[in-house]
């Protein structure tokens, strides 16, 4: 039997957000590979080997998955959210490009998932309902000045902005600088959403104006979304609804 | 029994890409409302009323859904892809904000789905594996100069770009101008993906350099993704893989 490799998205946490396509791939797998907390979401069963690995070893993990598939194993690499958004799909293709030629004959599929920004957006309303951008705020893999440049241009373009990896223990100052920059270019009243652990029992949503945003409102489990100039809040009896209308009537 | 309103994403077409959360909402619905081809994806059953409506009546459709929920019905508004990305969620909140105060007491949930750009990205590889933006190229609801401004700023920020609604019969010239602008700011070699009817039997993928891109490569069922300056192609025995590495090592 020939091996295959599926790079699958587990969504933000709730089992009800995992697509049947991903569930079927997991049911047919011999090996599941991924970052420890994501592999922990997979139920053990006979015939399935789980390969949890630590953060920041993405290329090693990718090469391991490719090698197992080349040996005839049925391998699923798991990411949270969508594997194509700041996750394992790009890492697998980087390893593929750098690896032995026979890997290019492998059956490799990417199975999309519900990415964190869309899960967070859904919970809050529809802040990404008009043009938007997604930026990874980690400077592990890119220079910090490029992050600031992109933030300024995105604000000038009046995109809503979704931020992945806003803050980590290794980079306590970066997100503080991001908030200062955003206050400068977007003004103090622009709404910002902190959506933590969306779709899990730990879920917490908070919407504040940029003037009140503090770096410690985000941690590694937080998705951050900043509205465009058009983004609005509807106050309701339960929680506020954050949304960006479909229309722009102002001049460009 | 009190009514509720769910705004649900059906994903790009394949049933295996519909989340169990959406399937459960549809199973509990008394009414399904949406654009004709999306409502056509819902199997009729006893106790379920289907309300298909035409394009460009989104606000009327949203108000209808809110009114039915206010009457105690269990209503699902269906979008393709994700309802929060250029789809019905923003329209429902626009109608909510403009409507009677009692609507604000309704139980309204947005149920995310696999949006077209992530389904297309998964099929092609991982072109959105680094920072990216999503732009609706329709000028029905925004002035054309704003589209051009955003394209130029997005290119300057070196985002990969995903384009929704690239081309329609009503706007045959717009996408041609977009391609000219992109060739000017991104150069002739930048890869562009045309992903048509992803995850359906009509699926077609084509990757060409911008120099070879023509407006008629896209239609209303096509998702278009333009790579960043870092986006690469791996040639394989089957089809080419398009991906954007996670790292940026050039200076900003």
From TrEMBL, chains A, B:
<keyword id="KW-0949">S-adenosyl-L-methionine</keyword>
<dbReference type="InterPro" id="IPR014777">
    <property type="entry name" value="4pyrrole_Mease_sub1"/>
</dbReference>
<dbReference type="InterPro" id="IPR051810">
    <property type="entry name" value="Precorrin_MeTrfase"/>
</dbReference>
<dbReference type="InterPro" id="IPR014776">
    <property type="entry name" value="4pyrrole_Mease_sub2"/>
</dbReference>
<dbReference type="GO" id="GO:0032259">
    <property type="term" value="P:methylation"/>
</dbReference>
<keyword id="KW-0169">Cobalamin biosynthesis</keyword>
<dbReference type="InterPro" id="IPR006363">
    <property type="entry name" value="Cbl_synth_CobJ/CibH_dom"/>
</dbReference>
<keyword id="KW-0808">Transferase</keyword>
<dbReference type="GO" id="GO:0009236">
    <property type="term" value="P:cobalamin biosynthetic process"/>
</dbReference>
<protein>
    <submittedName>
        <fullName>Precorrin-3B C(17)-methyltransferase</fullName>
        <ecNumber>2.1.1.131</ecNumber>
    </submittedName>
</protein>
<dbReference type="InterPro" id="IPR035996">
    <property type="entry name" value="4pyrrol_Methylase_sf"/>
</dbReference>
<feature type="domain" description="Tetrapyrrole methylase">
    <location>
        <begin position="5"/>
        <end position="213"/>
    </location>
</feature>
<dbReference type="GO" id="GO:0030789">
    <property type="term" value="F:precorrin-3B C17-methyltransferase activity"/>
</dbReference>
<dbReference type="Pfam" id="PF00590">
    <property type="entry name" value="TP_methylase"/>
</dbReference>
<keyword id="KW-0489">Methyltransferase</keyword>
<comment type="pathway">
    <text>Cofactor biosynthesis; adenosylcobalamin biosynthesis.</text>
</comment>
<dbReference type="InterPro" id="IPR000878">
    <property type="entry name" value="4pyrrol_Mease"/>
</dbReference>
């Amino acid at each position: 039997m020939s091996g295959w490799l599926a790079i699958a998205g587990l969504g933000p946490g709730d089992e009800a957000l995992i697509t049947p396509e991903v569930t079927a791939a997991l049911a047919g797998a011999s090996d599941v590979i991924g970052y420890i907390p994501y592999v922990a979401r997979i139920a053990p069963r006979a015939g399935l080997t789980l390969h949890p690995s630590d953060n920041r070893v993405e290329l090693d993990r990718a090469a391991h998955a490719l090698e197992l598939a080349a040996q005839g194993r049925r391998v699923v690499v798991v990411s949270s959210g969508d594997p194509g958004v700041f996750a394992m799909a790009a890492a697998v293709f980087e390893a593929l490009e750098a690896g032995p030629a026979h890997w290019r004959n492998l059956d490799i599929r990417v199975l999309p998932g519900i990415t964190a920004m869309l899960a967070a957006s859904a919970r809050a309303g529809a802040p990404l309902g008009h043009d938007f951008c997604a930026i990874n705020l980690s400077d592990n893999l890119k220079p910090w000045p490029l992050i600031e440049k992109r933030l300024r241009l995105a604000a000038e373009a009046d995109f809503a902005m979704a931020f992945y990896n806003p803050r980590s223990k290794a980079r306590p100052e970066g997100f503080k600088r991001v908030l200062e920059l955003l206050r400068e270019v977007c003004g103090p009243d622009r709404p910002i959403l902190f959506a933590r652990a969306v779709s899990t029992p730990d879920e917490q949503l908070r919407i504040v104006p940029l003037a009140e945003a503090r770096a410690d409102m985000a941690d590694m489990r937080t998705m951050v979304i900043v509205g465009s100039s058009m983004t609005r809040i509807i106050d309701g009896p339960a929680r506020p609804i954050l949304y960006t209308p479909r229309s722009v009537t102002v001049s460009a």
